[in-house]
Amino acid sequence: MHRTAPRLARLLACAAVPVMLVATGCSDDDSGDKKKASATPSAAATPSASPSVKEATFTKLPEVCKTVTEKTIDSIVPKAKKKEGDPLPASDSNDSASCFWNGLDDEDPKDMQFRTLTISLKRFTADPALGSGEKRAQAFVTQRTTKAATEDGAKEAKTEKLTDIGDEANSVASDYRKSDDDYRNAIVVTRTANVVITVKYSGAGYQGAKNPDAEGLMKNAQTAAKEAVTAVADANKK
């Protein structure tokens, strides 16, 4: 598919949550002499039982744009506009944060390759009504994976479980069409304790170039996910 320069510019522009138990006892002797009744607690005063949840493992998030190295960005997002990434707006960066990179490798006019990378972090705290941070994070992994399978209008996405990233992880591979061009998504949703990391890595070949290999795309997404898992642990070291 051939594009004019203005057309390519438009493509790049588009791409670019006490009770106390007390027993009272009275006694009378057989002679009829009465003694003062005395009250003695049968057990030590204890607070009322309340639901207890495990304290969250991770108390903070790393700087999201530093969860992957510039060396990795050079490798998977060639000619990135900003190697340091663009942080996306967030109401509280210690609960959720995202960073975005994009770049067009146009060195070879016959093989112009476009890539985008988005890394999102979401931290869950313990809640007596909702459960531990880890339990809440587990539920979010399922929710986010389901959403990834239809992202960008993709159909027939392929979802698989991964065993070597974080405490649990899923991958979602899909193809979709946008602005008359074919794109590929490689999405990894992984959990490390009470933090969920989503890596969305997308690619396309422009002006007639072939689309990136799906297997290679997913391998790069997993590399970024592993680095992000390490970054979360490093940020919480005491």
State the end-to-end distance.
Answer: 54 Å
Beta-strand segment tally: 9
Mean pLDDT: 84
Task: Name the structural class.
Answer: alpha+beta
User: Low-confidence spans: pLDDT under 50, at least 5 residues?
Assistant: 1-6, 17-50
User: What sort of overall outline do the alpha carbons produce when their principal axes are compared?
Assistant: globular
Major sheet: 7 strands, antiparallel
Write the element-wise H/E pattern from the N-terminal end onward: HEEHEEEHEEEEH
Strand order of the largest sheet: 3-4-5-9-8-7-6
Helix content: 10-25%
Radius of gyration: 28 Å
Tally of separate helices: 4
Strand content: 25-35%
Give an overview in words.
With 238 residues, this protein is of the alpha+beta class. The chain contains four helices and nine strands; from the N terminus they run H-E-E-H-E-E-E-H-E-E-E-E-H. The longest helix has 22 residues, at 214-235. The model is unreliable at 1-6 and 17-50 (pLDDT under 50).
Task: Sum up the structure in keywords.
single chain, 238 residues, alpha+beta, 7-stranded antiparallel beta sheet, two-stranded antiparallel sheet, 30% strand, disordered N terminus
List the helices and strands and how they pair.
Elements: H1 5-15, E1 23-25, E2 38-40, H2 70-76, E3 86-88, E4 96-105, E5 112-123, H3 133-148, E6 158-162, E7 168-178, E8 181-192, E9 195-206, H4 214-235
Antiparallel strand pairs: 1-2, 3-4, 4-5, 5-9, 6-7, 7-8, 8-9
